[in-house]
Design brief:
single chain; mainly alpha; three-stranded mixed β-sheet; globular
């Protein structure tokens, strides 16, 4: 189970954003907010969802999606390609919107077998949808032994597909995301993580500067793959002890890409690559600074200059929305590099709040959010494993939830009564009787 390092906070920092899943997105707001991922998640995770919601009415709803999931698991091994793809889409949607660890535990071997065959022998969309389910399975499973068994079976085929240049870019990108989340949730041993991170670098190195220092000419599909691989690399980086990272970076170890190479990716013509590189640099600095305050001091001026240009970019050849998102991201990165202040964001779900106050927690949350989509609030409330990963503590029981709701209602009633009394007294003061002598 991952161990998040001690939070690195700056004194006197007042920037504090609050987002909830009911609010509209703000283009100019931080790209780390809960709602800012909704557009991507809607397309990635909800295209085929037919309206099932977490069961709130009793056994009827539960039986409906349970039967639906059983049929989908059976269809995942069908001879028809489209039937298999449809089955994986249904499985994905049910696992996103429902926390059902006991149900999944009884059928995990069947699911693992179907996923392995589709990734190994399938192509394109089938591989992509099968890979999406893997992190959802890990999130649903409770036991460490079950997760280790899943990694043992699926990791080799995922690595092979991610590195296979004959596979589609989207399938390779989904395999990278699955590998990153699966190993993040299951391991914090650098001996297991560093070889996989090296595999990811093999992929995203396609967006390094060329030998003549000109930007990479990778196409949009390749750039999406590179940004996914770099995001997965950065997720595993949050599990590497800061002391080990500092040693590897300062010694020029081949296990970690140089800061110069990552900085060069900021010149990419693709927004996804630029943003992934900027966030990764912030993660590296945050981890290193927690061990050595002077970490990468000699590189800092160049990094500050590069991020400042992107934070104030006004080039008209970029799409207006892309410029807004880029400026919002790199304002945060630039401020952290220059002032050592991390963006601070609160995520509201139900009656609880998740505070993201380090780059490490931000990135972990966003990677999990990309996998779970609009089902994130369900798992934040009910999934003990996920709550432990994000340091939310034990689940609120129903009695505690009802108590908090009752207190809130009582507070609202008292406030309304106070307002009514104030209005009445104000009228009386304004209409005092005249005294006649």
């Amino acid at each position: 189970m991952p161990r998040n390092r001690k939070k690195h906070l700056a004194n006197g920092y007042s920037h504090h954003n609050v987002e909830s899943d009911d609010e509209l997105s703000n283009d100019a707001g931080s790209v780390y907010s809960y709602q800012s991922e909704n557009a991507n998640d809607a397309s990635n995770n909800n295209n085929n969802f037919d309206g099932d919601q977490p069961d709130q009415t009793g056994g009827g709803g539960l039986e409906k999606y349970e039967e639906k999931l059983l049929q989908a698991i059976e269809n995942a091994s069908d001879k028809s390609l489209q039937t298999r793809i449809n089955a994986f889409q249904v499985i994905n949607e049910v696992l996103v919107h429902h926390y059902i660890p006991d149900f999944i535990d009884d059928r995990k071997m069947t699911l693992m077998d179907a996923i392995e065959k589709s990734i190994k022998k399938g192509k394109g969309s089938e591989q992509s949808w099968a890979a999406r389910i893997i992190p959802l399975l890990v999130i649903q499973l409770d036991g460490a032994d079950d997760i280790n068994e899943l990694i043992k079976v699926l990791k080799p085929v995922l690595v092979a597909t991610a590195l296979d240049t004959a596979a589609s870019y989207d399938a390779r990108a989904k395999c990278c995301m699955a590998l990153g989340l699966m190993n993040f949730l299951a391991s914090d041993d650098p001996g297991d993580l560093l070889p996989l991170m090296k595999n990811f670098e093999t992929i995203f190195s396609g967006s390094y500067l060329k030998g003549d220092s000109s930007p990479s000419t990778a196409g949009i599909d390749a750039a999406t793959l590179h940004s996914s691989a770099l995001s997965a690399w950065a997720l595993l980086l949050t599990q590497i002890p800061s002391g080990d990272l500092v040693t590897m970076v300062t010694s020029g170890s081949a296990l970690i890409p140089s800061i110069k190479k990552l900085t060069g990716m900021l010149q990419s013509s693709h927004l996804e690559v630029r943003m992934a590189a900027g966030e990764t640099l912030a993660l590296i600095l945050e981890s290193g600074r927690s061990h050595d305050e002077e970490f990468l001091a000699e590189e800092l001026n160049d990094l500050i200059e590069a991020t400042q240009k992107l934070a104030t970019d006004a080039h008209k050849y970029r799409a207006k929305r892309d410029r807004k998102v880029q400026r919002a991201t790199f304002r945060d990165v630039h401020r952290y590099l220059e002032e050592d202040i991390s963006p601070e964001i609160s995520i509201k779900f139900g009656k609880e709040t998740l505070l993201l106050d380090t780059w490490s927690l931000h990135h972990q949350y966003i990677c999990l959010r990309n996998a779970l989509g609009f089902g994130m609030h369900v798992h934040l409330s009910e999934n003990g494993f996920l709550r432990d990963v994000l340091e939310l503590g034990a689940k609120m029981d129903e009695q505690e939830r009802n108590s908090k709701i009752a207190k809130a209602e009582k507070k609202f009633i008292n406030a309304a009564a106070f307002k009514a009394r104030s209005i009445t007294r104000g009228k009386n003061r304004d209409k005092r009787s005249a005294v006649i002598n």
